[in-house]
C-alpha cells in the first residue's frame, strides 16, 4: 500500500516537471527581439502622426503676432505726451496765459472756491476749461469728449476720488494723449508716491501758484512765447494780499470776489469744526481743514492756513486730543482774518 502511494507521488512530480518544461520550450519558440518591439512602436507612432497630421493640416491658419504680457501691462504714453522745460521768465500774470489760447483743460475739483480760482486765473486767456465736481463726472465727460491736453485732478473728492479716476483713465488707451496733473495739499513723500502709483504724471500743490500753473501748461503744450508783466500788491496784518493778488493774476476785482466768497463760506468754519471735534468726527474735520488750508493759502491767509495745518496734524493723536487747544488758536486767527478781509473789501479799488 505504501509502495503504491510513493509511486503516485513520483508520477505527480513527473507530470509537473513535464508541464514546466513544456511551457519553457513554448515561450522560447516566440521571437522577442528588440527590432520587433521597435517596429510595433514605430507603427503605432506612424498611425498617430498620420491622424493628427491630417487634423492639423485641415485647421492650420496663420497665427497673429502676440505682444508679451509684460509689454502690455507696462504700456507707456511717452510717445504721445511730450514735455518741455519752461524758459526763464518774469512775473506771470493772467495775460501770460493768453499764449495757450485754444488749449482745452479738464478740471476735476469739488471745492467751488478752488474751481473759481482756476477759472479766474485763466479767464480771458482763450483756454477752454471744463469743470467736473468729482472723479466720476470727469470720467463721464471723457466718455464723449477726449479733446483735452491736460486734466487737473484733485486727489481728494467725494463719490470717486482722483486716485481711482486716474487709474481708470490710465487703463484706457483713448486717453493716452492727456497728461493727468494732481492737485493736492498733501505734499509728503508717501502722498506724492501714491499719486504716481495711480498714474498721475505731475503734481501741483495747493494753494495753486500762478507761476507753477504756467510752467505746467507750458510743459505740455506747443506754445513758445511768454510775457513779462507786473502785479499790483497791498499788504495787511493777517492777509498777504501780495500773494493773493499774484494768485489772481493781479486782477484786484477778481481777488475781492474770491475774498467775499471766502467770508460767506468759511466765516463760520470755527463753529463747524467745533461741532465735528466734539462729536469725534475726525474724518470730516480732516477734510474740512484740508479745504481751509488750500483756500486760505490761495487768498494769502498764511496764519489761518498754518493754524489749520497744525490742527490737521494733531488729529492723528486721538489720545491726547491736543487739537482742542489748537482749535482755540484757529478761532483767534479766523477772527483776525475776517476783520482784515472786511477792511480790505471796504476800501475803494481806485485808492489802491
Question: What is the gist of this entry?
Answer:
The chain is of the alpha/beta class and about 350 residues long. Helix content is about 55%, strand content about 5%. Among the domains are: about 95-220, Response regulator (Rossmann fold), CATH 3.40.50; about 240-345.
Terminal residue distance? 151 Å
CATH topology of one domain, what is it called?
Rossmann fold
* Shape, principal axes of CA atoms: elongated
Lateral strand order in the biggest sheet: 2-1-3-4-5
The CATH class label of one domain is Alpha Beta
Mean pLDDT: 77
Task: List descriptors.
352 residues, 5 strands, 55% helix, elongated
Architecture overview:
Helix content is about 55%, strand content about 5%. The protein has about 350 residues and is α/β, with parallel strands linked by helices. Among the domains are: about 95-220, Rossmann fold; about 240-345. Strands 2-1-3-4-5 form a five-stranded parallel β-sheet, sandwiched between helices. α4 links the parallel β1 and β2. It is elongated and about 150 Å long. The protein starts with a helix and ends in a 6-residue tail after the last helix. The relative contact order is 0.09.
List the helices and strands and how they pair.
Layout (H helix, E strand, L loop, with lengths): L1 H27 L5 H26 L9 H5 L30 E5 L3 H11 L5 E5 L2 H10 L5 E5 L7 H9 L8 E6 L4 H10 L3 E4 L4 H10 L21 H7 L4 H15 L2 H10 L3 H18 L2 H13 L8 H24 L6
